[in-house]
Amino acid sequence: MEKIMVETSPPLKGKVRTSGAKNSALPILAASLLGTEDIILEDVPNLKDIEVMCEVLTSLGAKVEILDKGIIKINSSNINNYVTRYELMSKMRASFLVMGPLLTRLGKTKTSLPGGCAIGTRPIDLHLKGFKALGANINSDHGNISAYAERLIGDKIYLDFPSVGATENIIMAAVLAEGETIIDNAAMEPEIVDLASFLNKLGADIKGAGTSTIRVKGVKKLGGGVHSIIPDRIEAGTFMVASAITGGDIIVENVITSHIKPVIAKLKEIGCQVIENGDSVRVIGTKNLKPTDIKTLPYPGFPTDMQAQFMTLMSLCKGTSVVIETVFENRFMHVDELKRMGADIKIDGRSAIIQGVDNLTSAPVKASDLRAGAALVLAGLVADGVTEIDNIYHIDRGYDGIEEKLSKLGAIIYRK
Ligand code: EPU
Prior knowledge:
By secondary structure, the chain is of the alpha/beta class. 32% of the residues lie in helices and 25% in strands. The protein is built from 14 helices and 24 strands.
């Protein structure tokens, strides 16, 4: 099995461009099932998860063509299959996002239940609550879940938690439903706004994306269009932490700075200089890293997807930092690996107490999920010796060319 090796690296310097957002591209690819004409997506990141979603679309009867680097053409005019195979669902939870589009386009959908994963049980009750409110019948047996409806009719849906996936799935189901759907306590993430703006280009009528109330007026049919995926705010944040932790000076390009406000605020609290300039952000590290506290929250709060990377950084801040994870129940799998590298972290329920240490030391470690993997790469940049990271397929699921990009900034990182 291939591993990523990271050696003690000099302070990172230079410019790096953020790729398109994985968590925008995945629902937008799923939403492409709703279009009846050609769709061109630009700035699609080159990732394992994107490959899997393209496989899912193809298995449902869509034509998917890679036109160039980052450019994908999809034609879903003849989709004919409403069943997502277990083998694809088990590769990636986000495959569940095709349920909403299939239900509204074909009147039925069937898939295997996604099951748990390394960051928690991750139920899908809110997705199903939305489908039921629109009039779907839901059945679950033998590990499968199916939904069908002769017609979907818009309704008011209140989400008990602003789930990103449930908001996306319900929007996608509602675009072709009869009448108006109102989603209250909807997720407000930038990826929801990107999905809505894509669907509106295809002819949907969605208002309020980015606020907690989203209104979707059903239309008869969606056409095609061209859409560019927004930059990946989590990839950008990960590079920003790489600059901070190595005492570097890097400029991250292709960033929407309003999407990364909490990351910018926390890096400043830690003592870094962060200079925003249009669609780029410069992060200058410091030798005197100060402790801080973080509580993960739905957008616009601090993103859970940056929690692990910040924990690596906090391990080297002088003093005590606290992280409270409120979004996922079990997102501390990176802690034991960081401890093997010399970090001093204690877990108490959903809180982690991090006592800063003077340095980290290399060790063979395992990525338990995508962001945990990124946290270990960051630790490797400053640990003395060679850090060997296993289970790197997690990293490849969400970071487009991570070692090329970090190498260009001066990091010593390679595969073996
Ligand atoms: N939840 C429920 N019921 C549901 C759905 C969610 O209780 O029906 C709970 C989950 O168990 C979790 C919380 O709500 O505790 C948040 O889950 P959410 O549905 O918002 O997350 P998601 O849609 O499954 C997306 C991203 C994640 C990111 C979260 C939160 C994609 C493909 N995934 O997941 O990204 O952490 O939103 O921002 O968009 C990653 O990129 O590493 C990643 C895990």
